[in-house]
Amino acid sequence: MLNMIYDISCISFPWDNVDESFIKEPRRWESETIPGFMMKFGPISSIFDIVTYLALYFIICPMLTNGVLFHNLTDPAMQELYIAAFHTGWFIESMLSQTLVIHMLRTSKVPFKESWPSKELLTLNLLGIFFVLLIPDTSIGRIFEFEPLPLLYFGILIIIIL
């Protein structure tokens, strides 16, 4: 489901703005830069993931299970709640971080300060994020066993991502 929402939110890429400096002259595809790019963004992405995992496991999920960590839970219903909250948090973080990466990769300038995306791309990205944030509180969210998360999660997520 995440990939479908993300793909739909990116469908307007062909109508995105391109920085003037990028189109002044023809550019050559440089595959030699790919390993460096991977070495830079791979570890950064992993750090976001690990910090999010830690926040979910040690802070957010225990808030929903009376302060008890998963490995100490004996009630199957509480274990399911813990797992559902963890999955929900990961689902939301994935959409937000993927969308942020789009805006970092589409320009060599500072996104949203020095270079703005097209209205179409920005609108679809925001709609995708909005939809993902709403899903846990809907019947669709219940089908996928998502759990509404405390507001603290979103504060922590903003700190992690930004």
UniProtKB/TrEMBL annotation:
Signal peptide span: none
Entries under InterPro entries matching the protein: ATPase_P-typ_cation-transptr_C, ATPase_P-typ_TM_dom_sf, P-type_ATPase_IIIB
Domain Cation-transporting P-type ATPase C-terminal, first and last residues per copy: 2-161
Topology of this chain in the membrane: Multi-pass membrane protein
Main location: membrane
Transmembrane intervals: 47-69, 81-102, 122-144
Molecular functions (GO terms): P-type magnesium transporter activity
Subcellular location: Cell membrane
Protein name, entry field: Cation-transporting P-type ATPase C-terminal domain-containing protein
Organism for this UniProt entry: Helcococcus kunzii ATCC 51366
